């Protein structure tokens, strides 16, 4: 789904029996985030939230009006769509079903709802506009660029290319009523009108495989344009289009050419006439601006002596600038960008500055972060300040950079010598905690530096705190690691010469992340990246977009395509991702079956259970075969699991009965062959009895019913005794370990794994100074050259377990998107309190429980228009009080199940006490 324009609207509910109660229709949403301009969904989906202090509010009916102007909507003239009164409790993903919308059409909408407590007034107005929907509408707007190197540029392993400064003078002869600009700036751009930067985004647009699709951004620039002379200005940086490793290892690394741009400015005048300004050969540029190089791996060089005052205003003579030329299109189809750009989302002040023996200085930010450093400095003209970034230090206090491989990660600033100079880069980012600063004449002060944290402009929607401080720090480390690796796509690491969107890292990771961040549009966009990278015969790459040409045909990595779609459906009730991607997912499943299914087992695996904790702290990869899980076990079990999800998808979209029958038949064949070959009925173990070999069939429902308990007990023995209560799984097994333990009654063992401080564990990373999640369980000792200190793949299902099993915030799979919440914490796992919240699409869910020997206190919040199945650890109704009142044993809203009292509660805030 391509979410969301958030629009706050305040209404007053009309009550016959209850007065003076405020009700809000909150977050009116269309398929976009933060910017309702230029969407390219022909039937966008509309959503709203109902916020109130009144309990047990349920929507019964809604009516939506959509009009082509504000005036028409005010008069209830819904010339685009009047839904009529619809009897439904749906308040999410309501598909626009009005008149066909064309390029650049405007749409204004409002909603009215009827509930069991009364009806609302009409909401205030929300808005969206359509983008450029057809190629024909772009064809007269041509791409411009300049396919040539200039002095100082180079194409090599460490390519360098100066930024291109572009300007166009225009004469606006009338009073402007409305103006929008549509821009595709490859690889990265900054846009200016009359010297003012347009928008607060950075590193825009989001990356794609530019030969397949190109994202455009849309801005309302009505207030920036004025009658008379105006100047449009852009700076084009390189991004992933040019100069990461341009023309280096072309068999592996995809490159796209020189930076280029297509821009269209549509102006509507007060007198009703219109004008369109387009990119053509009259636009002028210079490569001789201050940004001498900008390479995502290697850093940015800024020569302040070459700054061009007023270059993007009327007060500038561009006679000596060059004219841009027509250039070939990137090849990809223009698409509206439906996920937000990156932004400076946070700031970090450094903790300390230490002088080195070489006369340089080491700046410690105190936190492994992703973004860049702002510099304030005084000095002489020609002084050069160099900043080199790293995640850790050597024993002698110098930077440790071996794990960055050939990424040079160095920013350079050359002073102009005109008093205090403040600078930060425009077109690069770094993953770092420490910065070595050279070129300073004296020791700087801390206030000369400020860390800027950069990631996608998405909301933090989850909080978690518990009684175990190690678990709290792991949560904080995960938070910093996840957000740092959101770069318009989910990347594996932000610091070395990789930074790639590996599928296997997010197979379950995306699920856990969705409790912390509103990552819906990010992952919907990423599914498109995967789809566009699919080969004609059905293969899917290991990395998508396929910036690296890795097509390994694994199951556990490529299966992320299906697993992430499943996450978007479960967490956000997004059926569209299933409808849009089902044919491509099925094509891949068929491809794998046709090429690698032998004797009803999936024989192809590439990476194994990646990053299994090795037997020694000093080695990177385990050499002990008893620790390694056979690839056929991994791929067969995982393929079986994906077949179950595909069957669910087939039902959701009403696919053919033949599809469903095939999934059923093949599933049974694989399960039978798998158990026949790998299940040892004497030892109640699978394959060579690794925890991964056992947890996968348990998690996927492959174990014969009569043997489940014994296989589980055997797995527990492996964890508790053989591995002495520590993690022994790699990237694949860790995705299902914590939930499987808890769901089979051993939440206490999952808690032990989560709270451990000794190797191998997440707590071991914390104990050894980690402020993010490492790539390796033993990343501080096992040849740290191979360790990224900011990877999130080893989190597995830990965050899912935090929320669903410890906090008790889980979406009922039968009612996705948290329409119904399953609140079933494991109160006996080992924690004495949990305080967690999650902003679902319906509103805030909160679970805050505390317990001692004789009492459990549980505060919960259930959003309006949802229900919750609240599981209490007792069957004795007389022990339960809700909001200080004895629970009514005659109520019809409860049942007993598996030794628990299960209440079905409607929206509201509740205090539950159990003695």
From TrEMBL:
Q: Does the keyword Lyase apply?
A: no
Where does the signal sequence lie?
1-19
Q: Which reaction does it catalyse?
A: Hydrolysis of terminal non-reducing alpha-L-rhamnose residues in alpha-L-rhamnosides
User: InterPro entries under this entry?
Assistant: 6-hairpin_glycosidase_sf, 6hp_glycosidase-like_sf, Alpha_rhamnosid, Bac_rhamnosid6H, Bac_rhamnosid_C, Bac_rhamnosid_N, Ig-like_fold, Rhamnosid_concanavalin
Which positions fall inside the Alpha-L-rhamnosidase concanavalin-like domain? 356-455
Q: Where is the Alpha-L-rhamnosidase six-hairpin glycosidase domain?
A: 460-806
Q: Where is the Bacterial alpha-L-rhamnosidase N-terminal domain?
A: 174-345
**What's the Enzyme Commission number for this chain?**
3.2.1.40
Protein name listed in UniProt: alpha-L-rhamnosidase
């Amino acid at each position: 789904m391509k979410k969301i324009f958030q629009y706050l609207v305040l209404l007053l509910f009309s009550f016959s029996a209850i007065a003076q109660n405020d009700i809000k229709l909150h977050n009116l949403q269309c398929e976009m985030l933060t910017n309702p301009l230029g969407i390219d969904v022909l039937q966008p989906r509309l959503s709203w939230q109902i916020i109130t202090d009144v309990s047990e509010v349920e929507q019964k009916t809604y009516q939506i009006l959509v009009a082509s102007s504000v005036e028409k909507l005010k008069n209830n003239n819904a010339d685009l769509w009047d839904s009529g009164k619809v009897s439904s409790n749906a308040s999410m993903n309501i598909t626009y079903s009005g008149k066909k919308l064309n390029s650049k059409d405007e749409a204004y909408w409002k909603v009215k709802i009827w509930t069991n407590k009364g009806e609302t007034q009409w909401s205030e107005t929300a808005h969206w506009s359509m983008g450029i929907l057809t190629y024909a509408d772009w064809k007269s707007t041509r791409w411009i660029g300049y396919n040539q190197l200039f002095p100082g540029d180079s194409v090599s392993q460490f390519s360098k290319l100066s930024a291109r400064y572009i300007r166009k003078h225009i004469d606006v002869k009338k009073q402007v009523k409305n103006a929008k600009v549509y821009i595709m700036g490859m690889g990265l751009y900054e846009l200016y009108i009359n010297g003012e930067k347009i928008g607060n985004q950075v590193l825009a647009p989001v990356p794609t495989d530019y030969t397949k699709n190109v994202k455009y951004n849309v801005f309302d620039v009505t207030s920036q344009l004025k009658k008379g002379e105006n100047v449009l200005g852009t700076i084009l940086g390189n991004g992933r289009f040019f100069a990461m490793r341009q023309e280096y290892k072309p068999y592996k690394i995809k490159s796209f050419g020189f930076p280029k741009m297509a821009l269209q400015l549509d102006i509507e005048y007060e007198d009703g006439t219109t004008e369109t300004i387009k990119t053509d050969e009259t636009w002028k540029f210079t490569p001789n601006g201050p940004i001498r190089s900008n390479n995502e791996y290697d850093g940015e060089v800024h020569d302040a002596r070459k700054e061009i005052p007023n270059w993007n205003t009327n007060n500038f003579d561009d006679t000596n600038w060059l004219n841009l030329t027509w250039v070939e299109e990137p090849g990809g189809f223009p698409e509206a960008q439906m996920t937000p750009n990156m932004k400076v989302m946070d700031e970090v002040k450094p903790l300390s500055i230490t002088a080195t023996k070489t006369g340089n200085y080491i700046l410690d930010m105190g936190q492994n972060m992703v973004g860049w450093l702002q510099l304030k400095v005084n000095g002489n003209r020609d002084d050069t300040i160099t900043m080199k970034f790293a995640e850790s230090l050597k024993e002698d206090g110098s930077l440790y950079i071996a794990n960055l491989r050939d990424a040079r990660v160095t920013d350079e600033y050359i002073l102009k010598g005109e008093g205090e100079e403040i600078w930060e880069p425009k077109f690069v980012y770094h993953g770092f905690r420490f910065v070595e600063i050279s070129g300073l004449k004296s020791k700087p002060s801390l206030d000369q530096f400020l860390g800027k944290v950069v990631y996608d402009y998405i909301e933090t929607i989850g909080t978690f705190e518990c009684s175990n401080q190690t678990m709290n720090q792991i949560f904080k480390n995960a938070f910093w690691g996840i957000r740092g690796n959101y770069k318009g796509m989910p990347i594996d690491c932000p610091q070395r010469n990789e930074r790639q969107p590996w599928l296997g890292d997010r197979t379950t990771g995306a699920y856990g992340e969705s409790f912390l961040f509103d990552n819906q549009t990010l992952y919907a966009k990423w599914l498109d990246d995967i789809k566009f990278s699919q080969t004609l015969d059905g293969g899917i790459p290991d990395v998508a977009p396929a910036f690296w040409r890795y097509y390994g045909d694994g199951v556990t990595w490529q299966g992320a395509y299906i697993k992430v779609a499943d996450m978007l459906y479960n967490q956000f009730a997004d059926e569209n991702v299933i409808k849009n991607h089902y044919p491509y997912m099925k094509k891949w499943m068929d491809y794998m079956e046709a090429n690698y299914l032998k004797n009803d087992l999936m024989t192809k695996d590439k990476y194994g259970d990646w990053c299994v904790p090795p037997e020694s702290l000093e080695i990177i990869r385990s050499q002990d075969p008893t620790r390694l899980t056979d690839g056929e076990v991994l791929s067969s079990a995982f393929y079986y699991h994906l077949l179950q999800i595909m069957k669910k998808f087939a039902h959701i979209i009403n696919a053919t009965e033949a599809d469903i029958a095939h999934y059923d038949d093949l599933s049974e064949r694989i399960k039978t062959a798998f158990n026949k070959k790998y299940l040892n009925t004497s030892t109640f173990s699978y394959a060579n009895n690794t925890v991964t070999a056992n947890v996968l069939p348990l998690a996927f429902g492959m174990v014969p019913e009569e043997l489940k308990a014994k296989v589980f007990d055997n797995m527990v023995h492996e964890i508790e005794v053989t591995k002495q209560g520590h993690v022994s799984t790699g990237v694949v097994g860790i995705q299902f370990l914590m939930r499987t333990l808890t769901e089979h009654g051993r939440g206490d063992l999952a808690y032990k794994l989560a709270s451990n401080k000794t190797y191998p564990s997440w707590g071991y990373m914390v104990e050894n100074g980690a402020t993010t999640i490492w790539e390796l369980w033993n990343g501080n000792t096992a040849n740290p050259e191979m360790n990224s200190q900011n990877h999130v793949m080893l989190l597995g299902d830990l965050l899912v377990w935090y929320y669903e099993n410890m906090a008790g915030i889980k979406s009922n799979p039968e009612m996705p998107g948290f329409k119904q919440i399953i609140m079933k914490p494991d109160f006996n796992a080992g924690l004495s309190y949990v305080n967690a919240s999650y902003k679902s699409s319906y509103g805030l869910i909160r679970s805050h429980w505390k317990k001692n020997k004789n009492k459990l206190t549980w505060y919960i919040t259930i959003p309006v228009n949802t229900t919750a199945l609240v599981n209490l650890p007792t069957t004795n109704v007389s022990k339960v009080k809700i909001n200080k009142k004895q629970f009514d044993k005659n109520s019809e809203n409860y049942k007993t199940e598996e030794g628990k009292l299960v209440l079905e509660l409607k929206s509201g805030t509740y205090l539950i006490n159990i003695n």
